[in-house]
Amino acid sequence: MDVSGYMGVVIGFYQAHPLVTVAIALVLAYLLYRRPKFFLSILLLAVILAVMAHFILKAGSSGVSVEEKAINKGSVRQED
Question: What is the pLDDT of residues 18-74, one digit of tens each?
């Protein structure tokens, strides 16, 4: 999934739950105003975790596709 896919998920969540999204935005704005160092450290941690999750999911999905290709290739040979 690329950036537009992630933005679609965020926009979809906002459209489905506007009150929750506004509440989260208000809490984040308050934290940014009152404790900017804490907010930025939490933001950095969230970005690092999101990147790690993306790479883990990407690696897992490519491994599954390679395994499926190997299984399909093996079943074709057995039919011959």
Answer: 999 999 999 989 999 999 999 999 999 999 998 898 888 888 766 666 666 666 666
16 and 40 share one domain:
no
Fill in the amino acid letter for 19: L
Residue 76 CA to residue 74 CA, distance in Å, equals 5
Q: Are 31 and 38 in contact (CB under 8 A)?
A: yes
Same domain, 1 and 29: yes
Kindly state whether residues 44 and 66 are assigned to the same domain. yes
Tokens of 5: 């896919």
